[in-house]
Write a structure and sequence with these properties.
alpha+beta, Uridine Diphospho-n-acetylenolpyruvylglucosamine Reductase, domain 2, Uridine Diphospho-n-acetylenolpyruvylglucosamine Reductase, domain 3, Alpha-Beta Plaits, 4 domains, 8-stranded antiparallel beta sheet, binds flavin-adenine dinucleotide
């Protein structure tokens, strides 16, 4: 179908404002870690009715639809492919906060609301959506990818926060189903909303959600620990959980290679350690919803660290209390800084924490032997077993056939992760970047079940980017 034919089909069914002119398509067709595509059209409906009208047109014409929130996804699922057939459906104008139920600590928000907007509104009520990450995603995108983030060990992932959803299906009527509710306790129905969370949009377009909120911390403190290597991490996390109890809110690791690059490209950041950078640094955060008159979390953190040193915790070489903005600025600088050193191959691995050292040793040895031009710059959320096992490919190095080398290294790292009981996609969801891994590592019966469920929400598989076709 040509663009003009599509416009004729939507004419009179949506307001002119919903049609994004081709001159403005650029930010919506290029993904962060994937090649840009060519859409048939880009639309930004201003209401759920308008969104349903567009979906009806797409279903009638058999056109695939790509829902898009903030386009901060990292697996290529939020942008069209090169076929020129995809209709990109932006949720950014679905931006209403429909209800703030403070007594219930629940917000009912539309899909296009950004995480930062929601948290700004919640601050006076000492509430937040506690998921924290280096991007500012939309609520719909967070649900579709089941965002994890740095404080998952404290607050859980996005699925954990979803009490109910309003979803538009990709069937002929663009059926809208909704179980938006404020109650946490409701076993009077079969819960389908968790199926939508993490399905990348393949099980319907989220238009609104009832989100369970978290208390906003009144104080926090952070420490940077210098570790001799990755082997120390599992036991240290166990020790920290025991020593810090419910105050522990984040445990992040930053390898020497990743930290060095962040410091090199951000002159405003300083090496916080007394000596040279350690092989691995661990950022430990404690926080509390109580104020300092009730408890001093920095004192809790210092006391726990002193006890760790008194017992000579293995692998911990140094520990420094650093103001939270300083510690997090270093951690959040890593992702963008790596891009300045070359192409980044982002590998979002989820592991049982005890298996982290074995996985790391095996994968690092494989890289040194078979991909010596790639630089391992790992970092991530070790408190929940999530590791960004990112590789930097400096320009002018390695073989000319980049694509096959890239696919090969990806699959071999995924194999190493799955081999120790881990996941090839910890928190970034499913999409073209990891479709081959989904096909390879998901058992056939589970894939079949997934496709069966998907067809209930999307009978013609038009919400096509997140899950590969059957
Ligand atoms: C610097 C940086 C740091 C990041 N750190 C983390 C991190 O720590 N943890 C983490 O989990 N992620 C992280 N991410 C990934 C990313 O931010 C998340 O995947 C994000 O939640 C996606 O939200 P979005 O609104 O940008 O969605 P998009 O990128 O627009 O879309 C992502 C997927 O969701 C689908 N989708 C979007 N909106 C809807 C909707 N309304 N209904 C149905 N499907 C929809 C899209 O089709 C696509 O499949 C990071 C990204 C960046 C750039």
């Amino acid at each position: 179908m040509q663009y003009q034919d599509f416009l004729k089909r939507v004419d009179g069914r949506v307001a002119p404002r919903a049609i994004v002119p081709p001159a403005e398509w650029d930010p919506f067709v290029n993904g962060l870690r994937c090649a840009g595509g060519v859409p048939l059209a880009v639309l930004a409906p201003g209401s759920v009715d308008e969104l349903r009208a567009i979906v009806r047109v797409c279903v009638e014409a058999g056109l695939p639809v790509v829902p898009q929130g903030a386009n901060s996804g990292l697996v290529g699922a939020s942008v069209p492919d090169a076929s020129g057939r995809h209709v990109v459906l932006l949720t950014r104008r679905l931006g209403a906060v429909r209800q703030l139920a403070i007594a219930d600590a629940v917000a009912v928000v539309e899909a296009g609301v950004r995480l930062s907007q929601l948290n700004f509104m919640l601050e006076p009520h000492r509430l937040q959506l506690g998921i924290d990450l280096g991007a500012d995603p939309s609520i719909g995108g967070m649900i579709a990818t089941n965002t994890g983030g740095s404080r998952m060990m404290r607050y859980g992932d996005m699925r954990r926060h979803v009490l109910g959803l309003e979803v538009v299906l990709a069937d002929r009527d663009a059926t809208m189903i909704s179980n938006l509710r404020l109650t946490r306790k409701d076993n009077g129905r079969v819960g389908w909303a968790p199926l939508v969370s993490g399905a990348g949009g393949a099980m319907g377009i989220v238009t609104a959600a009832a989100i369970e909120l978290d208390p906003l911390p009144q104080q926090s403190a952070t420490m940077l620990m210098a570790l001799g290597g990755i082997d120390a991490v599992p036991d240290l996390v166990i020790e920290l959980r025991r020593a810090l109890g419910e105050f522990l809110s984040a445990c992040e690791i930053m390898s020497k290679a990743a930290t060095e690059i962040a410091l090199r490209h951000n002159p405003g950041l300083k090496n916080p350690f007394r000596d040279a950078l350690p092989a691995q640094a661990m950022l430990v955060e404690v926080s509390s919803g109580l104020d300092r008159s009730a408890v001093d979390v920095e004192a809790v953190l210092l006391g726990a660290t002193e006890r760790l040193f008194a017992r000579e915790a293995p692998g911990v070489e140094d520990a420094l209390v650093v103001p939270p903005p300083v510690a997090w600025a270093l951690r959040h600088a890593i992702s963008d800084s790596l891009k300045m050193e070359g192409e980044v191959i982002g590998l979002d691995i989820g592991l049982p924490l005890a298996a982290l050292p074995a996985f790391h040793a095996k994968a690092a040895a494989m890289l040194a032997a078979d991909f010596p031009w790639l630089k391992l710059c790992d970092f991530g959320h070790c408190g929940d077993g999530g590791v960004h096992f990112n590789l930097v490919w400096p320009s002018g190095t390695g073989p000319a056939h980049r694509e096959s080398a890239r696919d090969d290294v990806r699959m071999r790292i995924y194999e190493a992760a799955v081999g120790v009981g881990g996941s090839f996609s910890a928190e970034h969801g499913l999409g073209p970047s990891n479709a081959a891994a989904f096909a390879r590592f998901t058992p056939p019966d589970e894939r079949q079940l997934t496709q069966g469920l998907r067809r209930i929400f999307d009978p013609w598989e038009l919400l096509a980017r997140a899950l590969p076709p059957a």
